[in-house]
## 1
Amino acid sequence: MKVLLFGTCLVDTFFPEAGEATVRLLRRFGAEPVFPKGQTCCGQPAFNAGFEAQARAAAKHFLWEFDGDDPIVTPSGSCAAMVKHHYPRLFRDDPSLLAKAVRAGERIYELTQFLVHVAKAHEAGLRGKGTITYHASCHLTRSLGVREEPLTLLSSLKGAIFLPMPDAARCCGFGGTFMAKLPEISCALADEKAASIEATGADTVTGCDSGCLMNITDAMRRRGTRIRVAHIAQLLAEGL
Amino acid sequence: MSHEQTSLAFRENTVRALKDSPLRAAMRHATDTFGTKRADAFAPLADLEALRDRASAIRDDVLANLPMYVDRFVASATRAGATVHRAKDASEAREIVARVLSERGARLVVKGKSMVSEEVDLNSHLEAAGMEVVETDLGEYIIQMEGESPSHIIVPAIHKNRRQVGRLFADRLGVPYTDDPQALTKIARKALREKFLSADAGVSGANFAVADTGSLVLVTNEGNGRMVTTVPKLHVAILSVEKMLPSLADLPAFLRLLPRSATGQTMTSYVSVITGPRKAGDATGAKELHIVLLDNGRTEILSGESRDILKCIRCGACMNVCPVYRAVGGHPYGWTYPGPMGIVLTTLLTGMRKSHPLVDASTLCGACVEVCPVRVPLADLILGLRRRKVREGFSDPRERRGMEAFGKAAAKPALFSLGQRLAGAFWPLVRALGGKDVAGRMPVPAKTPLRRRLP
Amino acid sequence: MSEAERERLFLENAATTSAGTRSVSGTEALLSALGEIVAMDSPVYCPGVTELEKAAAPLFPVRVDDYAAAAVTVEEVFGGIAETGTLVCSSEGGRAVQAGLLPAHHVAIVRRGRIFDTLDDFFAALSGAPPTNLTLVTGPSRTADIELTLAIGVHGPERLDIILF
Ligand code: SF4
């Protein structure tokens, strides 16, 4: 099955390893990922900051790059939620783009959704190691409604122990441009998240959104905590 | 005491709050407790989602027909013997209340908790007119004594710990120091009982106004709301126009949702349904009841894209789950209403010019949307206000230039790639040039981005 | 809901709000329950208007006409709501609803036939103009304004006793 891979601007620019891991996972489960070369960003930074025209420009480009009927897979809950829930608003006055936007929303999968519901990766006996805890990112959980899939995958890892995190779905303080506009609160929230992670005693923390993981990594660095932060794609791909 | 709006200094306010460790401990404790209590209270309730839908639909209907419901309320309340006043803004509301009270020679006024009275800054106005105004809700009593404003719409002194309250009471009331909440409560009971019995008038808010019957509904726990509305001979209620419910039959849905959302109770101790003043043959009720219906910009909100905020029933659940509110408390928001609903209301009621930093005071994490009992789409409303902020030119010029560049690059892959490479090359420089708040917290861009690693 | 079920639910829910609850049958049992509950609380305000109040009043040697000066109010109330263990107090018939508010102890007698299943049933049964004051009472007066720690008896009663008759 051909799937279009949306890497997301953050993974593309800062965390290409998570993108490569996504490709390995998709291939292992029989999908043929294609990376549309012209892809850029879903437009969320502009959309969330209130710059609708710029968000629309990005979204329009996305719809053009990802046109067609193939499923779209992305290693980000936040970007998937942007396409699914906010694109229709951006094109509410443009019937042809609106139809495309709605269709894209139906075609897009956050990675763990695809791995569980389409690829059944949790039944493949992937290996893991050490102790793992999981941060449930905001848009993944509350906007996309993806709560169980990452847990299903992580608890299926043979040889790894999953340790639940208290208040796993509380915001880490990233919030896109929020981290730049109100850095003090952003750091305070990331600190609290880091403390919850430390309290689990896990040696690795994972999640489905690299923005959050980046913010958490920074808090870990400030606190001098030596807990590994890895995107869920990387953890899963290591067990192939 | 009068409080200047400080929303423009939101960031500075939060920096101060973040350094206040008793405040942060109090906020963590309070929001954690609220979270558990709320979850426990809703757990046994079958079909919560259907109940939320029903309450939301009732509020939608009220907003869709607000002028009709307000007229109906005015007619029924008048028929029941109340005098209804319409106030178009804060100053009119203050004038009306002050006039009603002073014409009847009121000197001592006991007050129940009312966020609308905070919104119009009623107390300072009445005090300036020579009246003694005593807040009687325990939390309001504490902050009035301290000269503060509420930091939460349900629990106004949520930012204070028991030791701070103990010291305050010892200092101001001359009682021996104690930090036992039960003992502190007793002290307040005694001090306030005298005030209730000698007050010339009671001023209250209302949670709901019932259009069909002209009734005011007060949902309370302490009993001060009952005192204020039944003990003095004059009762003045001040509430905003959107508090309407069509009929008493609509009330149960809200009585099931409001206490559970607000304090995690199945039911509050008291729900008072007050219909007009004391009538012939009655032994309960104020002899005279005046109802002040405040508009203060709500009619305008009603016709705009943020109208759903008027569905709000002031339960406070959205602030209890808000990570930003949890970290800094209510005071940094700088006006009457804090938290997610406060961001929206403050911006709409006081204007973008006085409050625009607030619209950025959200990570858009959606926790508020998940708990709001009447489905106010808070995240969407905040997004709408951010668009308005941009439209009205209140955004930072650097952000604007950055976003304009982003918009161009996002639509042109070559430009986007170039930007990526430039960012990689200049990252150390950006960090060095004081970009530590942002660039310093992000990793250095990868040497080879994903797009150049894949076939 | 059967009558027995309704009564059980009413008492059970009332008990979770820290109200004292009893269920008695017959005037004698009522009077002896009142005697135990009121015990040393004095003076007593008892309106002596309903039949039950008339029967109860002689039980209390020190009575006052001013509820603000009473230590306890003993009265029959309008009804109850099973869903929440709530008492309904009404100003109908010239009753002083605040008599159940000012004294530190409130003893409310509710007749079995006056219990409604749910809040909806109660409000649906209200026809015409409501009385000047309708107060739903669920447990004693309380606050959590200091550190969200529950404290009982702020401005209203710190003790609420319900007798189902
Ligand atoms: S917006 Fe919703 S959650 Fe927030 S106070 Fe209003 S009703 Fe409660």
## 2
Amino acid sequence: MAVSLNGETITGLKPVMGYLHRNHDKIGERNTFLQIIPYTDRLDYFNSMANNFGYVTTVEKLMKISVAERAEYIRVIMAELTRIQNHLVFIGMLLNDLGTLYTPALYAFEERELILDIFEAVSGARMMCNYFRFGGVVRDIPDDVMQKIKDLVYDRLPAKTEEMERFLNENEVLVARLKGIKVLNAEEAVRLSVTGPCLRASGVPYDIRRADPYSVYDRFDFDVAVRYNGDMYDNYLIRFDEIYQSLRILDQAVRQIPRGTDQLAETAVPGAGPGGRGVRTGRIPEGRTWLLRRLQRQAEPIPLSRPRAFLCQPDRAGDHVRRRQDRGLRRPAGDAGHRDG
Amino acid sequence: MYGKGILKGLSVTWKRFWDTYLDDISWWLSGRKRYHSEEGVRHRSSKNTRGIFTVQYPEEQLIQPEEFRYVPFLVYDEKPDGGKEVRCTSCGICAKVCPPQCIWIVRTNNPQTGKPVPEPAEFYIDMDICMNCGFCAEYCPFDAIKMDHDFDIASYGRNVYNLEKLLKPASYYAQIRPQNYSREEEARKAKEAAKAAKAEAAAAA
Ligand code: SF4
Ligand code: SF4
């Protein structure tokens, strides 16, 4: 991506196609539905649980698989923990790019590491979790891990998020670098199909968990975080708002989660399903992710019934121009947009 | 006042800096070992950790949870005479379910009859391609392939593991995954008892 800059303002943008295409869609043509789950981890290694979530909900919707009650709560817990660590790291990395090399980033990574400990204990891996299955999750959360989740949600994360705010929010250099930079107003944001916190920082209170609740999100009481200036500073602050809302959801989820492992579904391996296509949007912390799947019945049975599958995330593999612009808008001080891409 | 925010922020880093040493002293006073000990590492992964956070790999290592998974290995049971009874029947399910398709199995045929024998002649896993997803272990119906805890496998060459390199005893499996192991053993015993009861009933009839 060739970007012309005038100070911190982008005056011209020439995207070069073809990077970051990691063949997920081609692999998707070969693999069965189940085999694609670990690839969704790799769409964004900061949000593997959330990507799992979006993908399995899509397939479940297509195949009409119902999900075990407890598993729904486990999924929400994992997705919200993912959001918290993602947002904290976002803040840390933003500061990295502003020149505060690694102190805030490593503070963020401490909390992330503690959350990844939980992921590792339940799924076996810190980053490439591969934890979700159609109809449920791989295994239940053991009691000690549940206790650790509660410890983090009640004792540690709120205090640490506040500490992060105390650490950075009023920092004069940070405010000067962020306030009024890259103002994206609501109309523009909608026109450019911006999603996620960036959209909400521009004053559009659109949150897929509220607008089109999937899983058990309709059972939780939370506010859609929104800020109105649409500049970098609001983009930064809204991450904190969202972390607090995630903590609220987690608090309710750990209290409401039904007991007993019998409510976890057996891992379902879908065979050739009904033909059709399905689009499901999930809310990964970075914004909305689209997963499009098209199924066709196979003429001949293939071992492990291998339906033709197509996995596409326009965000990642499809519309590059939009995606690149999108990223530029999302993480201006960060990576793509402002410097090299 | 200009600079107040910066000072406020610096107080956070300042506090963290001192927390490390204050905790060092309190651990020392209570006679506990904060570094290079399991207790210390556990504390640094708990909600109460403050100050220093780093676990100094390789001198210290994070405590691996039982479910931690790295590359797969094949399980064999030790026979009383010291031989290896490979659990794998070369059914090929793991090879089919493997997302990046990195498992190769060659079946054994009985040289007299030419019929397949339930034991692999060769078994290869390309560890450079394996994505450590754990599906093979999840779907193997014979508990013959399991995910390992041993992650220090970096090397300069290609890592295509053959049968010899993949095979590890069931006792090793029991050691790294005690809960899973005892659960599976229980299930296996229950199954065998049910089978024996059925055979007995058939014999009595
Ligand atoms: S490891 Fe298990 S799944 Fe793979 S071939 Fe052997 S018995 Fe079958
Ligand atoms: S862990 Fe996954 S990628 Fe590796 S051999 Fe097993 S199924 Fe294949």
